[in-house]
Write a sequence for this structure.
């Protein structure tokens, strides 16, 4: 865990994390860095498996690292993926972002092309715990 205040620093952390991607099947490397409400930063990279369906996206690796260290409120995530234009997060990762309150998503290429979206733009009608029956 580290502490990085700016968007640029978060994107740099995601770019560094991409270096650890284990993506021998797709050869599509992704790194992510998520900042918690308390300012902590956790990184992740995609991790594939010969049994393809077991692969993990970089975003969920970073988010679940934060959550498994006790964080429940996340604010912003940066994602750096291979390619010449920024790749948007998959639907499953958007749902996991919604669970932990991510509000902003920064997507970037390794050469620094960047786009910023709100999670509300990417997932306008999330399924959230308030729809579940009371305990
Ligand atoms: N991948 C991510 O890490 N994040 C995404 O949002 C989309 C896809 C990974 C999963 C897999 O290892 C590779 O990219 C190709 O789908």
């Amino acid at each position: 865990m580290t502490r990085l205040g700016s968007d640029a620093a978060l994107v740099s952390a995601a770019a560094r994390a991409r270096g650890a991607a284990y993506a021998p099947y797709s050869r599509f490397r992704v790194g992510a860095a998520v900042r918690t409400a308390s300012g902590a930063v956790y990184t992740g990279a995609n991790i594939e498996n010969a049994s393809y369906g077991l692969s993990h996206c970089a975003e969920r690796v970073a988010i679940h690292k934060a959550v498994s260290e006790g964080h429940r409120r996340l604010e912003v995530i940066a994602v750096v993926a291979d390619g010449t234009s920024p790749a948007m997060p998959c639907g499953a990762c958007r749902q996991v972002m919604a669970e932990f309150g991510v509000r902003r998503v920064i997507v970037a290429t390794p050469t620094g092309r960047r786009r910023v979206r709100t999670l509300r733009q990417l997932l306008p009608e999330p399924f959230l715990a308030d729809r579940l029956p009371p305990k």
About this structure: The radius of gyration is 14 Å.
